[in-house]
Amino acid sequence: MQQITVYSKPGCVQCQATMRKLDKRGAAYEVRDVTQDQDAYAHVRELGYQQVPVVEVGQQHWSGFRPDKISGL
């Protein structure tokens, strides 16, 4: 499986739901806090997103809690 990165921030309900869904699928992922990591924040903006979570898997990425996308991994 390709590396999964979840761009998140503290207190984000959709971020927590995304990580719970990934955990249930047994997926390994890296979490990057956009409030603490300026490179992560800049990357999310470069991808064209203004809100988190942003999930990036290889060349694929999306924003928001997307159980359909997670199930398709």
TrEMBL record:
Sorted UniProt keywords: Disulfide bond, Electron transport, Redox-active center, Transport
Domain named Glutaredoxin: residues: 4-62
Keyword Transport on entry: yes
Any GO BP: cell redox homeostasis
GO molecular function, one term: electron transfer activity
Pfam families reported in the protein's UniProt record: Glutaredoxin
SUPFAM superfamilies linked: Thioredoxin-like
Family of this protein: Belongs to the glutaredoxin family.
Biological function: Electron transport system for the ribonucleotide reductase system NrdEF.
PANTHER family named in the record: GLUTAREDOXIN, GLUTAREDOXIN-LIKE PROTEIN NRDH
Name of the protein this chain belongs to: Glutaredoxin-like protein NrdH
